[in-house]
Amino acid sequence: MGQKGKGNIEDIEEIRKKAAQHKEDIVQYRRSIAGQADGVKERAGQDMVVLLQNWKRRLRRYRIYRLCLSFSLAASCMALLAMLYYQIDRSIPSIINVRAGEEESIHLGVPARGEIVSVSDQGTSNIPQGAVDIDLSKTFTLKTAMKSNYQMQVRLFGFITLKNVNIQVIEDQDLIPVGTPIGIYVKTDGVLVVGTGEFQGPDGVSYSPGKYILKSGDYVRKIGGQAVTEKDDFIQRVKDSGGQPVVLTIERDGELMDVELTPARDATGDYKIGVWVRDNAQGVGTMTYIDNQGNFGALGHGITDVDTSTLMHMEGGTLYQTDIVDIHKGSSGNPGEMTGMIIYSDERILGEITDNSNQGIFGTCNQRALEMGVREPLPIGLKQEIKTGPAQILCTVDGETRYYDIEITAVHLDHDNVNRGIELKVTDPKLLALTGGIVQGMSGSPIIQNGKFIGAVTHVLVQDSARGYGIFIENMLEH
After folding, report:
1. Residue 435 CA from chain centroid, whole number
2. Catalytic positions, please?
3. Element (H or E) spanning 166, and its range?
4. Contact predicate 150/249, CB 8 Å
5. Is-above-0.90 flag for pTM?
6. pLDDT digits (tens, 9 = 90+) for 31-52
7. Which end of the chain is more exposed for a tag (fewer CB within 10 A), N or C?
8. Which of 328, 300, 297 is nearest to 397 (CA)?
């Protein structure tokens, strides 16, 4: 019995130990679970931090993207508005010519309103504000008094001031279309500096006395205080300088100034200043019109120097009768050309050139030239009367002056370039076969539409010789 009781006590102790161990295991397990929970919480916190960081980064990117998108959208809207503004501005001419005492119907088709704000010959306007308001989106009719010019203020959408338009009243005029080739000789007003360069002196050193003092486009009017008009005379005076400093009076950008330079000897012993000069220009073009006073207009653009591309300042010039001896047909990338033979004799003089401007060359005709104007005079057509569609040009390419069919493809009422108000395309099969379209030498060919004289050919597109540009006849008459 005693042995059995002892065994029971040992069993109880063993159970207690196991219970204690089990309790310890439970505690350890709870600690493990708690540790794992803390780890999960820590990892969850870290993941949350990463998630928040990614979210903030994405939010910043989204904000930047939205800002860039908003900026691009705003820039695009501004560009579209600027383009719309520019297109509308070009659709409204700065000058509108109307015939005195006649009704003129004008259609601009722009979302703007115009208000007549002044009459030029009155000094101050007596027109009440808002009294003459015009809807420019619709066709409107003007009838003006004699010799009165008006100013119209144009407002885009009725409230944004766009520009002021001068409405000029002109006398109706008839012109004789000519379309015959002419030889042109012009004398520069002074000696034109084409460029500067170097030459070698007797010592083998290169000299360029004119460099940095003279430049392309300068006109030398005097040397040593004495007028100079011819290239050979200018060169001789430099040679005669003996190497002493010379004072040149030059015209640059419309202003006269004196410059001093010292000629140097070249390898032959002659004194030079290292400049290329020109005192004249020659070429072939087309006479556009003769008016009732015996005056002519030709070319539709000015005579520019071939090297400096500047409008030549002209002392005087002469028109000569010329014959076309060859035609180089135009092609893509290669404009064609009419080659004329000019004989500089008194018997072939057609008139005197008095003006060289951006709108063409102008002057007076002699009797021989007047005999070339055998066609009936035509009324001029104002630019607002020109329509896209069929028209004709008058020119001489095969020895006979005749009309050829063209199509007016666009009309720019206020083009930046006065010589490109009309876009045209040659459609006549005969002219295309002869020349390929428009070639050099046809500048000045009259453009006729609906029985009215509307302009003159001025340029050809190098990429497509069948296409080109023209000037409004009213712009030629404003020279």
Report:
1. 27
2. 301, 428, 443
3. strand 160-170
4. no
5. no
6. 666 666 666 566 666 666 667 7
7. N
8. 328
